[in-house]
Design brief:
By secondary structure, the chain is α/β, with parallel strands linked by helices. The protein contains 15 helices and 13 strands. Strand 4, helix 3 (about 100-115) and strand 5 form a beta-alpha-beta unit. Helix 2 (about 75-85) runs parallel beside helix 3 (about 100-115).
Length: about 375
């Protein structure tokens, strides 16, 4: 097939780019021709909460990426839509994560569909975002109407889709493993590279720091007296998407500065493996969620997880097999961590992770996309 992926890719950084580039490679490895249409302008600067949108990594040499989509220019949407329409791809895959993008992506989809040949399938990260804004539902409805079918990466998103459409073909397929972030280096080697204490145990909070991800709850958990008496530190690796001051004030108020390691810059792809391999367990204390790429990185690096009972997280982290599922509550999180270290669960949970990770292949994702593509 000739396949076009519409969405974020290099030179943009982060999980969206990683996903689109990885699935492009999966299709290429199976003999398909793939092009990616990414953004010339993804977010206006005032809407982007981080330091930079751009990667400092080398450009991928094995992918054909066109940087042509301006998310804010309707004339551009029409131009790009016509260009893709003329190419007559067999399949166009659109990664949808934010209603702000609906007018741009939905309009391009509508233009492309006019060729009467291309099937347009969307991979849904979210339909309703974690952080609500005016117009979200109106924009989401516009996008849903533009698309032939859907693959949702959590059952909660599949349920949300039902608010806007109940007829179009759809599949549930869990987020595949992020398996391109480097080798499974030994724990002590990873600690040495980062500069961590050899005999200290570490809980990792990884990724962009946003309100819904519950870092504040995890900080409260680390103030637990019993946990404080254990040789355990919290490793925070990721960039603040918002004002860091409330977190810094909370850390000072709780008096836990000496039990934290702050690496609060963006972590390049080439350095991700050292953070996951250095830790003993990955914590995702989210207040709301659909699915999470962090979970799939943890699976790849064979790390036990503590997640909260929100969205699709409990679907892919079997409680008691690969880690713990708790409510988004500081006391419950603290108790789970205490239990993990006291009972020496790392070895048994790691074996559970090795067994469970086999479910999350990119082959399953391309299969789900093809089933939706062929559905009427």
């Amino acid at each position: 097939m000739h396949i076009i992926i519409l969405g974020t890719a290099y030179p943009y950084r982060g999980g969206l780019s990683a996903f689109n580039e990885r699935i492009a490679r999966e299709y290429q490895q199976n003999g398909h021709t793939v092009e990616i249409y990414t953004f010339s302008l993804q977010y206006p600067g005032f809407l982007f909460p981080g330091k930079t949108q751009y990667s400092e990594e080398p450009a991928p040499h094995d992918l054909k990426i066109h940087r042509k989509v301006n998310s804010c220019n309707p004339f551009n949407w029409i131009k790009v839509g016509k260009e893709i329409r003329r190419k007559r791809p067999d399949l166009m895959i659109t990664k949808f994560w934010l209603p702000f993008m609906a007018p741009c992506l939905g309009t391009i989809e509508r233009m492309v569909r006019k060729n009467g040949h291309t099937r347009v399938v969307s991979i849904l990260d979210n339909v309703i975002p974690h952080e609500h804004r005016p117009g979200d539902k109106l924009f989401a409805r516009y996008f849903v109407k533009s698309t032939h079918g859907f693959v949702a990466m959590s059952k909660s998103v599949l349920n949300d889709l039902g608010l806007f459409d109940t007829q179009k073909p759809r599949q549930f397929c869990p987020h595949p493993l992020y398996d391109h972030y480097g080798n499974l280096i030994p724990k002590q080697e990873a600690k040495e590279i980062i500069g961590l204490e050899e005999n200290t145990r570490y809980v990792l909070f990884f990724g962009f720091i946003r309100g819904y991800k519950g870092l504040d709850i995890l900080l409260d958990a680390f103030a637990d007296r019993e946990l404080a008496e254990m040789n355990v530190k919290l490793l925070i690796a990721g960039e603040f998407y918002g004002d860091p001051k409330p977190y810094m004030d909370q850390i000072e108020r709780l008096g836990i500065q000496d039990r934290l390691v702050l690496k609060t810059d963006f972590i390049p792809d080439s350095q991700v493996n050292r953070y996951f391999r250095a830790c003993d367990i990955v914590a995702q204390p989210y207040k709301s969620a659909t699915q999470s790429g962090v979970t799939q990185i943890a699976f790849h690096f064979e790390k036990p997880m503590l997640v909260t009972n929100v969205g699709g997280l409990p679907e892919i982290v079997p409680d008691g097999k690969v880690g713990y599922v708790v409510e988004p509550d500081a006391r419950q999180i603290a108790q789970a961590l205490i239990r993990y270290f006291k009972e020496g669960k790392e070895e048994s949970f790691t074996e559970g992770v090795r067994q469970e990770k086999e479910k999350y292949s990119w082959k399953n994702m391309t299969k789900a996309l093809d089933e939706v593509r062929l559905s009427e």
